[in-house]
Write a structure and sequence with these properties.
Strand order of the largest sheet: 6-7-12-10-11
Number of domains: 3
Distance between the termini: 30 Å
Number of helices: 8
CATH topology of the largest domain: Uridine Diphospho-n-acetylenolpyruvylglucosamine Reductase, domain 3
Bound molecules: flavin-adenine dinucleotide
Largest sheet: 5 strands, antiparallel
CATH architecture of the largest domain: 2-Layer Sandwich
Structural class: alpha+beta
Strand content: 25-35%
Radius of gyration: 21 Å
Helix content: 25-40%
Shape: globular
């Protein structure tokens, strides 16, 4: 049954631990529950905001209308053909627990995406990626409900328009659909992707026989734990800025001025720059002000030690303008900012 609460603190529901109130709040753990919640909001003409684990949002104010936390469970093997394992997963499953479960079942392909916080339903929104693998590479389709019409849709990989930390759900489809389940295509045959430099380095020392998907997952977890603060200990939203993508000419000019520039060639024309390196070079590493700061092990991560959202956003603006004036590069914010 629908349980709508009033004036609920969202501090426990966002990993930056910013203080914010939901005018109304409910959790839904079934498709029917979601339909009821959408009907309730529609009858009251309230806007709906969806929340998963709150690890990729900046709650810069209170949220009016109904905040719906997507908690629909379920992991199901829906087909097996040769090595292919197709699985359907409810939007409310925890992403990392899914990775662990898949490994235990012998369904491989998610190991590089170990330990990414948040829930499954949000994974397609920004096409989560880490250590050289993106969700889009393991994705088959998703099920979603239109927030206004209640219509159910099945969307393919091309419908989702995946790109680097981007999808249809951040563009044209923004705030229009609740993703209720996703279907992934995994494999019973390991196909390891260990080209990413940090991963390659850690794996170099391993005898080949020990190189299993489980081992890759453990190594990814170790690297992440050494580099990223645990949001339960130091509130943060992971990478706060996207790695900028620039033309090869721009990258070449920068490299001329800054020979140590960290960059990855994407293709003939495009180069991805390491936003963390740019922020480091602009002198922000470990900087703290008014209860917020730049993490001292990884400048891409902003942390909240009891500061306000205003303090955080003012730090963001200062970082963006100093990177712009030093390098001429725009830093875009990765998490969704709700004002
Ligand atoms: C320490 C840390 C490390 C991280 N590392 C990575 C990383 O390596 N790679 C990476 O890609 N990301 C990373 N992130 C970001 C984050 O974990 C992912 O973006 C994750 O998918 C967000 O999931 P969530 O459930 O917390 O989403 P939320 O933060 O709750 O929501 C994010 C957005 O998705 C929308 N949304 C949520 N659920 C649904 C749904 N079911 N249907 C439709 N819209 C929905 C929300 O409205 C919101 O706009 C990291 C974050 C942290 C804190």
């Amino acid at each position: 049954m629908l349980n709508v609460q009033e004036q609920v603190s969202l501090k426990p529901y966002n990993t930056l631990a910013l203080p914010s109130l939901a005018e109304y709040f409910c959790r839904v753990n079934s498709d029917e529950g979601l339909s009821e919640a959408l009907a309730w909001a529609g009858n009251h003409r309230y806007p709906v905001t969806l929340l998963g684990g709150g690890s990729n949002v900046v709650l810069a104010g209170n949220l009016s209308g109904l905040v719906v936390q997507m908690a629909i469970p379920g992991v199901e093997l829906i087909s097996e053909k040769h090595h292919l394992r197709r699985i359907r997963v409810g939007a409310g499953e925890n992403w990392h627990q899914l990775v662990v479960h898949a490994l235990n079942q012998g369904w491989f392909g998610l190991e590089n995406l170990s330990l990414i916080p948040g829930l499954v339903g949000a994974a397609p929104v920004q096409n989560i990626g880490a250590y050289g693998v993106e969700l889009s590479e393991r994705f088959h389709s998703l099920e979603a409900v239109h927030l206004n019409t209640g219509e159910r849709h099945v969307m393919s990989r091309s419908d989702c328009k995946f790109a680097y930390r981007d999808s249809f759900f951040k563009g044209q489809g923004r705030d229009q659909f609740a993703i209720t389940a996703i279907t992934l295509e995994l494999s019973s045959k390991p196909d390891l992707h260990i080209e990413y430099p940090a991963l390659q380095q850690a794996i170099d020392a391993l005898p080949e026989a020990e190189l299993t998907p489980k081992r890759v997952s453990d190594i990814v977890c170790d690297i992440r734990r050494g580099k990223l603060p645990d949001p339960d200990v130091i509130p943060n939203a992971g990478s706060f800025f996207k790695n900028p993508i620039v033309s090869s000419e721009v990258a070449a000019k920068l490299k001329h001025h800054y020979p140590k520039l960290v960059s990855y060639s994407l293709d003939e024309n495009r180069v991805k720059l390491a936003a963390g390196w740019l922020i480091d070079q602009a002198g922000w590493k470990g900087f703290e002000r008014d209860g917020v700061g730049v993490y001292n092990q990884q400048s891409l991560v902003l942390i909240n030690m009891g500061g306000s959202c205003d303090a955080l956003m003012s730090l963001v603006v200062d970082i963006q303008s100093s990177v712009m004036s030093k390098f001429g590069i725009t830093l875009d914010i990765e998490p969704r900012v709700y004002r």
